[in-house]
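Report of the visiting student (M.T.), summer placement. My assignment was to run the structure pipeline on a short list of targets and document each run. The first record concerns Phospholipid scramblase.
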Amino acid sequence: YGFQAQTTGFPGGFAVPPVQNQPTMNGTIWMPMPPSIPNCPPGLEYLTQIDQVLIHQQLELLEIVTGFEEKNKYELKNALGQRVYFAIEDTDCLTRNFCGPARPFTMRIIDNLGREVITLHRPLRCSTCCCPCCLQELEVQAPPGTTVGYVVQNWHFCLPKFTIQDEKKTDILKISGPCLMCRCCEDIHFEVMSLDETSAVGRISKQWTGFVREMFTDTDNFGISFPMDLDVKMKAVMIGACFLIVSLSF
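After the run finished, the structure tokens were exported:
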């Protein structure tokens, strides 16, 4: 898939420097649209130019005040703070408020032209390690209707583990997270590894957002890093993996 395994560490923090004099749309700074690329799914051209994606969940005032679960919305930005995509959860009210983190969902990821360029489908599955025959799975389509890969949960008695697969369900990469998900004042990292788990390929990180926000809201910030030359389809699947981890663990 064109990636080069890296054995060195990845820069932490996923800091977003201020951006000035950039084109805006409705007050939002958008990443300039790159030219179309042969054999690249439409809308994924942005991913050919970046090696990090920063995901910021938007605060929902009604949810904070009432505790009533609203549709989750996210901004996906590059390392310069320019919005690359916008994602919104497509679920009904009963599913969100009664199924909790185990709920099935469709996540629609839209570019700055308003096109739905990536669709994530998560069916209803078991969310505990007690049922290894029915663990979580997420399908990634880019564009909608064309499957480019899957994220499947692997059974483990204490560690969160996942496998990234291509459209033919061939294993491509492994993801492994920490045993303890609650770490005060620290980021939580999920390492993306080669199939033999000897070389680091990328990282998915949940960022510590401060005591007040962590305690009283369920909004989170995440960062994804991957090699610049990783196939854009696998970059899209890594974005899907981040949303599956978000829904399961946080």
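Residues 232-249 form the longest helix (18 residues). Helices lie at 61-66, 93-98, 211-216, 232-249. I thank the supervising group for their guidance throughout the placement.
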